[in-house]
Amino acid sequence: MARMYRVLGFWCLVIGLMAFAGHMTEFALLFFAQAVAFVFLGYLNFSERTYILMFWGYMAISFVGFTYWSVFKMDLPF
To answer: Which of 40, 47, 55, 70 has its CB surrounded by the most CB atoms within 10 Å?
Structure first.
């Protein structure tokens, strides 16, 4: 399970590099930070249960943040 966190870190790095190449700096910095966090957590060698609980917590926070941003911060499309 620790390897999967390092894989998540790698893919976050790839997405961050593509965003940086597309001149989306804030988006790229967000994914660079996630890449560092995932790789760091991947080397801590927690139990599989801990990794799964951390991932569910990450998903809950990211979905709440995405929903907040898309409802309250984005402009209306019309």
So the answer is: 55
Which tokens belong to 20? 């940086």
Q: Which of 73, 6, 65 is nearest to 30 (CA)?
A: 65
Write down the pTM of the prediction.
0.85
Which letter does DSSP use for residue 1 in this model? -
CA dist 42 → 29, 48, 56 (Å): 20, 11, 15
Under 8 Å between Cβ of 12 and 34: yes
Q: Which two tokens stand for residue 38?
A: 């995932």
Angle at 53 between CA 51 and CA 55, to 5 degrees: 70
Alpha helices (runs of H) in 1-78, residue ranges in sequence order:
2-21, 25-42, 48-68
Backbone dihedral angles phi then psi of residue 75, each to the nearest 5 degrees: -75, 160
